[in-house]
Amino acid sequence: MDYEKEIERLKGRIACLEQTIRETSVPIISSIVNHTILVPIVGYSGGERFELIRTKVHEYISKHPDVNCAIFDFSGADLDEKDHAEFDQMAIELGLLNNTLKLMDIRPILVGFNPQIVRKIVLAGIHMDFETYGTFRAALKVLLKEEGRSLKK
C-alpha cells in the first residue's frame, strides 16, 4: 500500500467534507413575510462561524436583491457556556453583521435569546443596538402587521 497516496486521498476527502459542512452550516430560508429571510443559528457561534454567516447572507442577498429583511434566530445557538470575553466577541461580530446589512438597506432582526443569555449580556455590560424579539413568531407578527397582514390560528 502506498501510504503517501492514501494520505493525499484522505486529505482530499477531508477538504470535500469541510466544504460540504461550510455550505450546509448556514441555512437561509425564505419566510412567509415578503422579502424576508430566516437564518437559524444552531450550535457553535464563534468568530469564524459569524464570518461564514456574513459571507453566506451577503452572497444570498446579492442573488436575491428583493430581500429587505433578515431574521437571525439564536434559539438553537450554543450560548450557555460563553464567558465574558466570548460575549464581547459575539457583540463585535453581531455589530459587524448589523452594520453591513444596514449599509445594504437590509433590516436585521435578532430573535431567540433566552432570558439566561440576555441576563449574561446585560451583566457583561455589552451594549447591543439591534431590533430584537423573543421569538421568530413575534418578529413575524410585527412584520406581517406592518404589511397589513396577520397570523391566524
TrEMBL record:
Protein name: STAS domain-containing protein
Gene3D superfamilies registered for this protein in UniProt: STAS domain
Transmembrane feature ranges: none
Superkingdom to which the source organism belongs: Bacteria
Matching PANTHER family: RSBT ANTAGONIST PROTEIN RSBS (PTHR33745:SF1), RSBT ANTAGONIST PROTEIN RSBS-RELATED (PTHR33745)
